[in-house]
Design a protein that fits this description.
Blueprint: H1 3-10, H2 14-34, H3 37-40, H4 45-55, E1 58-59, H5 60-66, H6 68-78, H7 84-102, H8 106-136, H9 144-198, E2 206-207, H10 211-214, H11 216-219, E3 222-224, E4 230-232
Parallel strand pairs: 1-2
Antiparallel strand pairs: 3-4
Helix pairs in contact: 1-9, 2-8, 2-9, 4-9, 5-6, 6-7, 6-9, 7-9, 8-9
Length: about 240
């Protein structure tokens, strides 16, 4: 039985199952691309921000455009003069927004994983109702095709529902774990910056130039290595 035969055998309930399958596939591909730790919270950014603070070369526009973690750190640095409690509060608020963005589409994916087995079960019930309806008429022997159609619908829809639900549930759990891991990484690097600011003896100097005028590639300060870590760039004489 090929794909088209299965769709026909499953009846109209295969339509929502097919829609759930396409939606789950799109969500999984999009989340795999979006939830990359190097893009959201690159290693070494917190330490690099501390070094830039010490040199008075922190540019908030560049930091905000660097990564979501950079946006979180920039939100805290903007309120550094208001005290450490305000810094922590702004970091928490900005991190909450980033976490909310990382969890986008995970709820629909979990819903798909939950309802597709139920749709398959509904197909099983509908198929068995058709089978028993044929048997009750008393001419089941002469209507073998109708009996086979009801049984086929019951089995195909159940199999299709489980086929969609199992990978959807696996990826849903996987993405939840990845969000937790990235959140922990963000907390660690934000904690480094807060700890450094708590012991910073001088006056905090923040550059407010536009990112196009002051990003590391334009002014020759630092650049992001290919592996997602921050490394100092040698200045030209």
């Amino acid at each position: 039985m090929d794909m088209m035969d299965a769709l026909i055998a499953g009846g109209w309930l295969m339509v929502p199952l097919l829609g759930c399958s396409l939606a789950a596939t799109v969500i999984i591909i999009e989340r795999l691309w979006t939830l990359r730790a190097r893009r959201i919270a690159p290693y070494g950014l917190g330490q690099e921000v501390c070094r830039l603070v010490a040199r008075g070369q922190v540019n908030l526009y560049w930091l905000e455009g660097h990564s979501p973690l950079g946006g979180v750190l920039a939100a805290g640095l903007r309120n550094a003069r208001l005290g450490h409690e305000q810094v922590r509060a702004r970091l928490q608020e900005a991190a909450t927004a980033v976490i909310h963005d990382m969890e986008r589409f995970l709820s629909p994916l979990g819903t798909i994983a939950a309802i597709t087995p139920l749709i398959g079960l509904l197909g099983t019930v509908v198929g068995m109702i058709e089978v028993f309806a044929v048997i009750v008429t008393g001419d089941g022997a002469s209507r073998t095709a109708d009996l086979a159609g009801g049984i086929s619908r019951a089995l195909v829809t159940t199999a299709a529902g489980l086929t969609v639900a199992i990978p959807s549930l696996m990826f849903h759990r996987y993405f939840q774990r990845r969000v937790e891991d990235i959140t922990v990484r963000m907390e660690e690097q934000a904690g480094q910056v807060v700890e450094y600011l708590a012991h910073y003896p001088g006056e905090l100097v923040l550059a407010e130039r536009h990112a196009d005028e002051s990003r590391p590639g334009a002014r020759g300060d630092e650049q992001l290595e290919a592996d997602g870590r921050i490394a100092p760039r040698v200045k030209q004489p």
